[in-house]
Design goal:
single chain; about 200 residues; mainly alpha
Amino acid sequence: FADMYAKQGKYPEAQRYYEQALKMKELEDGTETLALVETAGGLGSVLAAQGKYAEAEPLIRRRLAVYEETFGNDSSLLVYVLDDLALVCLGLGRVDEAKELTRRLLALSEQNPRTNDTTRAREIRRRAKQAFTAGDTERSKILWRGAVSHYTHAFGPHDDAVAECVDEIVAICTRQSNDVQAEFYSMLATAIREGGDGGEDD
């Protein structure tokens, strides 16, 4: 239920289920297992989406620590956790730290390119535009983030197609009056464009 509510943008409901799940896993596991920190990270993401950055930070850092220990500091699996942590740091006013985390996640993305994600990215873009037109901005934002991931895997992090998707996320955050996220994604788009040129047409 927690994941379902989070995807629907129903963050208070998602938070309640994540908190219940986390308490159960902490009792069952006792140590920082992957399953436990996945739940902790999910709760952290939901808290961050509500602007509760101070509460979110330690949960996201728990997930990052276990990921680094399990997968290594150069794993592409760290990208999404670093993305969440950068947003939290920006929300807490730690702009330099947010920029450093953004540079790190872009570097990891560049080290782990894929070449088979273009078709999927185009389909996600189409669905994101449809959701935005229908007024479902939260779903549209989630879909645009998915497109960013696929284009990054296909072309690397400094491609125009990636930057254009991030621009769409900025527009959605602005429409939602979410200034912190809009600033974060604007900063990310700038960092992407500083590294390359070229792109892909629809």
